Amino acid sequence: MDMLEIEFRFRDTAERVFDAWLDPKVVRTWLFATPKGEMIDVQIDPRKGGHYSITERRKGQDVLHTGTYLRLQRPDVLWFTLTVPSISPDTVTVSIEIEPSVDGGCVLMLGHDVKREDKDAMTKGWLATLQGLQKQLSR
């Protein structure tokens, strides 16, 4: 296994970025959303031990992303498990750390274990996801 690590700069505050991961109305617009998919359901229980499920319909197939929150420390730490059963039975632990920057924005660091052969595709996917979040926060 390799470690996937991404650093992404946001113009928004750490609090606003952190909250965007846990608000179902905001999450449905960007997290695991694809350009041609239709978000079907978003359920979030934002507490340690709470669960989430995000389902998007892609080309007639429902794709579920699900997991459990392991650590929530607003506004700087969010850890959760992630499983996408239709793609892989594997579960990864995603760690997110957010640090304020001097310009009023913040830097988000995301990491998780990944199979070497999946690292490039997963990196591209997470970067697109974070760009989607930046776009959503700019509205």
Structure characterization notes:
The chain is globular. By secondary structure, the protein is α+β, with helices and mostly antiparallel strands. Strand 3 and strand 4 (61-73) form a beta hairpin. It starts with a strand and ends with a helix. The mean pLDDT is 96. It has a single domain (2-137), classed as 2-Layer Sandwich (Alpha-D-Glucose-1,6-Bisphosphate, Chain A, domain 4), CATH 3.30.530.20. It has three helices and seven strands. Strands 1-7-6-5-4-3-2 form a seven-stranded antiparallel β-sheet.
How many domain modules?
A: 1
Task: Determine the fraction of residues in helical runs and give it as a percent range.
Answer: 10-25%
Task: Tell me about the largest β-sheet.
Answer: 7 strands, antiparallel
Please provide the count of β strands: 7
Which sequence of strands runs across the widest sheet?
A: 1-7-6-5-4-3-2
Structural Rg: 14 Å
Write the layout of secondary structure elements.
Blueprint: E1 2-10, H1 14-20, H2 24-27, E2 38-44, E3 51-58, E4 61-73, E5 77-83, E6 91-100, E7 106-114, H3 119-137
Antiparallel strand pairs: 1-7, 2-3, 3-4, 4-5, 5-6, 6-7
